[in-house]
Design a protein that fits this description.
Keywords: Exonuclease, Hydrolase, Nuclease. One of its GO terms (molecular function) is 3'-5' exonuclease activity. By secondary structure, the chain is of the alpha/beta class. It has 4 domains: about 170 residues; about 80 residues, no CATH class; about 200 residues, Nucleotidyltransferase, domain 5 (2-Layer Sandwich), CATH 3.30.420.10; about 90 residues, Rossmann fold, CATH 3.40.50. Helix content is about 50%, strand content about 5%. The strands form 2 sheets. The protein has a 7-stranded mixed beta sheet, with helices on both faces. The longest helix is centred in the middle third of the chain and has 32 residues.
Length: about 700
């Protein structure tokens, strides 16, 4: 614009009494500014905008400004877009009454000026007070998606509403022509541009642009997944270029838990596969039968019946296998009593506390899995010859505390352990006593007062000889037995089933499997004790078993005993023989206390036997390297006891005569005699059990 024109325009403003009203008079009575491009009206308007900043006194307010704003709104409806911002600024339309502005927009909308209504709404920031569906629908039908995006661009809530509206247009059965009929005659609709594919692309573009959660548009997401499903079926069954495993993984991932997609999956399976495959997928998706085609529902029912028959057959075989392979309770289930109240325990105490009674005692705790401290007893099991009592100890202690019977309950437990006329059988009872003390502090001295206890862990350390009929063949791939289970296997022929050992014993009610397991753990002690008493010599025990074992409970060893390591073949397949001849002049006699040895890890049975006789024994763990024996022998001045090939390696690492090869084809007792004789160790009665076991 020439300087001369600018000056002329400014002189004109200066000469007017009311420049703002003068501009409106000019615009209302001129058609020049209605065309495209920068008209004379545009130059006059923008120049006035600048001139007002230099002459703020010309600004209007109050009723006069309101009249000007009303006239300006009428002008805005007709003026080109490039005049909107200058006019809004000059007449301060952002400060105008919002209801008046909205009414003006509504007037434009009902005239069919949808585009102008939207543009003016954007300029005046009126969108939060408008119906986004009402404003955007005609714009979408005219394919003015860019204007729609600008309309919601600064308002996340409106973005979500718009996407939800578009998603409803993707619902199965929706027809866009039902919407477009409302606008017939007002503008030319383009509903053909709004097919599912076009809508889907628009929605995904807006989801990406506005960073909105796709979950807001379930219909379009489902449609996309359905197209993926069709593609997967094409690749698998038409092109045949996808493996069954990959196809299954992709189908599962695509369908997920969406029932609508699962229904389409069943239809596709019926088209491409067979009834049985469709029924298998219906079962995998856990689809209700009423939602399935009747032929698939019938096939699914057949499949479920077949699976139940197979499961029942498998369960019967499993139970039969357990009966054949594991120790079984010889008493009926009705003779196992689960006791939770004081009244229920009274018959139990009456039977258990009979003089001359033999009671198998065991306890169960919730597994601690490395937690610090002793676990609290969850269940106390008392087994008699004809029945087993399972005491819910936490519940009984709580009831006794509340009912004032704590003293009586503790009296019964203390009497059971302290009465020498009652034989108590257990396994590793010192650990049980510690947990009993952790459960109830009043029972912390129960182990000191205990009399008449037989800890079968002591037997576990002494049993050496197994009678031929007690060999046990394990046809499965189980872990090797240990602890009480191993002792039961050697004495009674079958191990305990320990599958419930790591149960949550605090949870109530106990499962049937837990009840049977707990009863078996206690009752087997009676049968083991009875068999050992009848024939102690067959197991390498003293003829007077009761006299040798009744007393204080023993400590549980850190490493569990492996009783079946009686014979270890050498790598060459030949049984080991002592490689050194007996010396012609035996050494001077020594006592077991003076004799220190380190046993290689294939001689742990020998090590335990020598320790029972008072010898100072260290044993390698199963995972230790044989060479560790030489290291210990040099540091602590011990004799190495080994067997087989390791002897050749170890004898060269210590002084002559400080490594001895034991005949590994012998049993522990004979091995011990061989060692004692070779080193001239003289064992007295006082030496036996003189060391902590």
């Amino acid at each position: 614009v020439s300087r001369q024109l600018k000056e002329e325009i400014r002189r004109g403003f200066a000469g007017l009494e009311d420049p703002l009203a003068g501009l409106l008079d000019m615009l209302e009575n001129s058609s020049d500014w209605k065309g495209k491009g920068h008209s004379l009206g545009y130059y006059i308007t923008t120049e006035l905008q600048l001139w007002i900043k230099e002459h703020p006194a010309v600004q209007q307010s109050g009723p006069r400004l309101q009249k000007l704003q009303a006239r300006a709104l009428g002008t805005l409806a007709q003026c080109p877009t490039n005049l909107l911002d200058p006019l809004i600024s000059i007449y301060q339309l952002h400060t105008a009454d919002r209801n008046c502005l909205l009414a003006h927009i509504s007037h434009l909308y009902h005239k069919g000026d949808y585009k102008e209504a939207a543009i003016l709404s954007i300029k005046l920031k009126l969108q939060p007070d408008q119906d986004v569906e009402k404003m955007c629908t005609p714009l979408l039908l005219q394919d003015k998606t860019n204007l729609v995006e600008d309309y919601v661009g600064e308002y996340p809530e409106l973005q979500s509403k718009l996407l939800h509206i578009l998603d409803t247009w993707c619902e199965p059965g929706f027809d866009i022509r039902d919407i477009s009929r409302q606008y017939q005659g007002t503008f030319r609709c383009k509903p053909d541009k709004f097919n599912h594919k076009t809508l889907s692309k628009l929605i995904f573009r807006l989801l990406d642009r506005f960073n909105v959660d796709p979950a807001l548009c379930p219909n379009v997401i489902n449609q996309r997944h359905l197209r993926t499903l069709h593609y997967l079926f094409y690749k698998r069954f038409v092109e045949k270029t996808m493996t069954q495993e990959n196809w299954t993984d992709h189908v599962q991932s695509t369908v997920g838990e969406n029932q609508w997609l699962q229904g389409h999956l069943i239809q596709l399976l019926l088209r491409y596969c067979d009834l049985n495959t469709a029924a298998q997928w219906a079962q995998r998706c856990n689809l209700p039968k009423e939602t399935l085609p009747h032929e698939v529902a019938d096939e699914l029912q057949k499949l479920q019946i077949q699976e139940r028959v197979e499961e029942a057959t498998k369960a019967l075989k499993f139970q039969e296998s357990k009966r054949n392979n594991y120790y079984q309770l010889p008493i009926p289930r009705a003779n196992i009593h689960f006791l939770q109240t004081w009244e229920e325990t009274l018959p139990c105490w009456e039977k258990v506390l009979q003089p001359g009674q033999v009671v198998g005692i065991d306890m169960e705790y919730k597994p601690s899995f490395g937690m610090v401290g002793k676990p609290r007893v969850s269940l106390l099991q008392l087994a008699l010859k004809d029945e087993v009592f399972l005491l819910d100890l936490p519940r009984l202690l709580e009831e006794a505390e509340m009912g004032g019977r704590m003293e009586e309950l503790l009296h019964f437990i203390q009497t059971l352990y302290s009465d020498s006329a009652i034989t108590k059988l257990g396994y590793g009872m010192s650990g049980d006593f510690s947990s009993l003390a952790a459960t109830c502090s009043a029972l912390k001295d129960a182990n000191k007062q205990a009399q008449g206890v037989v800890d079968l862990l002591t037997v576990d350390k002494q049993v050496d000889v197994l009678s031929p009929e007690q060999s046990y063949e394990d046809g499965g791939c189980r872990q090797p037995e240990k602890g009480l289970s191993l002792l039961v296997q050697h004495v009674l022929g079958k191990p305990l089933d320990k599958t419930e050992q790591l149960s949550n014993w605090e949870k109530r009610p106990l499962r049937e499997e837990q009840i049977l397991y707990a009863a078996s753990d206690a009752y087997c002690l009676l049968e083991v004790y009875e068999k050992l008493c009848k024939d102690p010599a067959s197991f390498g025990l003293s003829l007077d078993l009761t006299e040798s074992l009744v007393g204080k409970p023993s400590m549980k060893p850190k490493a569990k005993k492996q009783l079946n390591k009686q014979e270890v073949p050498s790598p060459s397949g030949q049984h080991c023989k002592a490689s050194k001849p007996e010396p012609s002049h035996p050494p001077a006699p020594i006592s077991p206390k003076e004799f220190s040895v380190v046993c290689d890890n294939m001689l742990q049975g020998l090590g335990r036997y020598l320790r029972c006789l008072g010898v100072d024994v260290r044993m390698l763990e199963n995972e230790d390297d044989h060479r560790k024996a030489a290291e210990i022998a040099r540091q602590e001045g011990r004799v190495i006891l080994t067997s087989g090939l390791p002897y050749q390696t170890l004898q060269s690492q210590v002084a002559e005569g400080r490594c001895f090869s034991v005949n590994c084809s012998e049993k522990a007792k004979e091995q011990a005699l061989q060692v004692l004789k070779h080193f001239n160790v003289q064992v007295s009665l006082a030496d036996i059990f003189s060391r902590c076991q």
